[in-house]
């Protein structure tokens, strides 16, 4: 039972490059989320998807796009990376309000 | 804007000390309150899910209580050990327009000194 799988674990990008962070869960969870974690800022929600086919903006959506490809997969795309997007990115999924989150292992992204 | 507040932001305790932290959340439309333990360079791991007023959950030396009427939860660690050093997060599911997302506190960073 893999839980939530994020790829890649590490990435270095040059300013202006694009990339997609992949996230997949095998727990049949309805909702999926992308967060970024910066020093002193805690977890900030970028985008979330309450169910297959729907996506909504979180606190810090600018510079990102998402795709809920199917129930299992939720990807995060940086179209033109900026140094301000250097962060650790976490994907998470949840079944319902009570079940809580299962987190992926994180992607450490550096934009130079 | 909903706030989930945690206090203190950080604390240092000596090995063997007992300690506790607070999570404050909106008392209306309560579904559940979650506690997570987050070690450096790892992802958050679930500790407790608390759903009923007066709930008390325990896992080893760590326990938590819940007061939904006044909107707070306490996390207690008895006899702290260096391996307890981590950030402890609480999270509150908030529903808007038929969907929900979890609102996280900024966490309490605990350092246990050997």
Would you write up a description of this structure?
The complex is a heterodimer of chains A (112) and B (114). Chain A is mostly beta strands. Chain A has strands at residues 4-7, 10-13, 19-25, 31-38, 42-49, 56-57, 64-68, 74-78, 87-94, 102-103, 107-111. In chain A, strands 2, 4, 5, 6, 9, 10 and 11 form a seven-stranded mixed beta sheet that branches. A four-stranded antiparallel beta sheet of chain A has the order 1-3-8-7, with no helix packed on it. In chain A, a hairpin with a 3-residue loop joins strand 4 (31-38) and strand 5. The mean pLDDT of chain A is 93. In chain B, the strands form two sheets. In chain B, strands 2, 4, 5, 9, 10 and 11 form a six-stranded mixed beta sheet that branches. Chain B has a five-stranded antiparallel beta sheet with strand order 1-3-8-7-6, with no helix packed on it. The relative contact order of chain B is 0.33. Chain B has no helices and eleven strands. Chain A binds chain B through residues 31, 33, 41-43, 45, 48, 50, 54, 56, 58, 90, 94, 97-106, and chain B through 31-32, 34, 36, 42-46, 49, 51, 89, 91, 93, 95, 98-102, 104-107.
Give the helices and strands of chain B as they follow along the chain.
Answer: EEEEEEEEEEE
Name the quaternary structure: heterodimer
What percent of residues of chain B adopt helix (DSSP H or I)? under 10%
Instruction: Report the mean per-residue pLDDT of chain A as an integer.
Output: 93
Largest sheet of chain B: 6 strands, mixed
Portion of residues in beta strands of chain A equals over 45%
Number of helices of chain B: 0
**Secondary-structure element sequence of chain A?**
EEEEEEEEEEE
Fraction in beta strands of chain B: over 45%
Shape of chain B: globular
